[in-house]
Amino acid sequence: MVLWYIIALFAVGLIVAALARPGHDPLGVSGMVVLGLVGSFLGGVMAWLFIGHPAGLVFSVIGAVALLYTRRRFVEHR
Q1: Would you give the distance in Å from CA 59 to the centre of its chain?
Q2: pTM, whole model, 2 decimals?
Q3: What is the chain's Cα-based Rg?
Q4: 65-74, pLDDT tens digit by residue?
Q5: 29 near 11, Cβ under 8 Å?
């Protein structure tokens, strides 16, 4: 059961990060998964604050885009 949950989290992280990443970014697969998972968490918090209940994929992508924007804005690319 736990293995399927981890696989599902990995897949959702990849999907959210792929939707949030409009262009080429030097993130690897593990970076994309982390971006997607943290973006999903951030999107869930934003949805809870703004509409009072968890939203789903839309707010997950919004959260991931916000993280990606922040990363591109403040972290220098090598």
Answers
A1: 9
A2: 0.73
A3: 13
A4: 888 888 878 8
A5: no
